[in-house]
Design goal:
Elements lengths: L1 E6 L5 H14 L9 H11 L8 E8 L10 E9 L5 H9 L2 H8 L2 E9 L8 H10 L6 E7 L4 H7 L3 E7 L6 E8 L1
Parallel strand pairs: 4-5
Antiparallel strand pairs: 1-2, 2-3, 3-4, 5-7, 6-7
Helix pairs in contact: 1-2
The site of coenzyme A has 19 residues, from helix 1, strand 4, helix 5 and helix 6.
Length: 183
């Protein structure tokens, strides 16, 4: 099977497919969160789409197979420019010393979300999506956070990301790696 990459859909069946993929990817442990689909629908509509530098991609299975779930969408990702005043950026900035803050956050693109349907993981879709998202970005770095108990950091390390710091985002919450890559 091969993959076709398309820009992140604004509406319609492919947007629903991307949301279904996201919900399916975060339903198993360590996230165990089957309700994430509705959260991301809300955040996309109310906040993320309007942010500077927003762009995203979906991957579709090719040839299209009626048995493929989620309208043929197997993976999705999106990001935007990291800017002061954004919750994630400000929480991470407070954790870093001045030099690290300057190095990683002064001109940063944020990889905000990435998910590949569990039936299609480990076939290279995630790497293709990250590479498409970062292609031609003018920022100096790409930054993201990922739970330390998820295996996603293996993929990011393979793509050239390093661990910037380890932190929690809520009191008593799960520990995350903040990772960064020079662009
Ligand atoms: C992380 C994720 C997007 C990777 O997509 P993918 O298409 O499987 O990625 P690739 O095939 O390009 O690369 C596979 C790598 O991802 C890692 N990985 C992360 N989560 C994984 C999972 N649930 N199953 C299998 N591999 C996973 C593997 O360790 C592998 O690394 P390696 O090749 O160095 O061993 C996907 O596994 C996923 O959607 N996971 C659940 C949601 C998530 O964790 N999102 C990221 C939050 S920051």
């Amino acid at each position: 099977m091969s993959w076709r990459i398309e820009p992140f859909p604004e509406e319609g069946a492919l947007l629903e497919g991307a949301i279904e993929v996201y919900a399916a990817a975060f339903a198993p442990p360590p996230y165990s969160d089957p309700d994430r689909g509705e959260e991301i629908r809300y955040r996309l509509r109310s906040l993320h789409r309007e942010r500077l530098g927003f762009r995203g991609f979906i991957s579709l299975s090719e040839p299209k197979d009626v048995s493929t779930p989620s309208h043929g969408v197997v993976g999705m990702t999106y990001g935007y420019c990291s800017q002061r005043g954004q919750w994630w950026r400000d929480v991470v900035a407070r954790k870093l010393d001045r030099q690290a803050r300057k190095q990683w956050l002064d001109s940063a693109y944020e990889l905000v979300e990435i998910a590949v349907h569990p039936s299609f993981q480990n076939q290279g879709v995630g790497a293709i999506l990250v590479n498409n998202l970062l292609e031609g970005r003018p920022e100096s770095t790409c930054v993201l956070s990922t739970r330390t108990d998820s295996r996603a950091h293996n993929l990011y390390a393979r793509l050239g990301f390093e661990i910037v710091t380890e932190m929690t985002f809520t009191p008593g919450g799960a520990p995350f790696y903040v990772m960064g890559k020079m662009l």
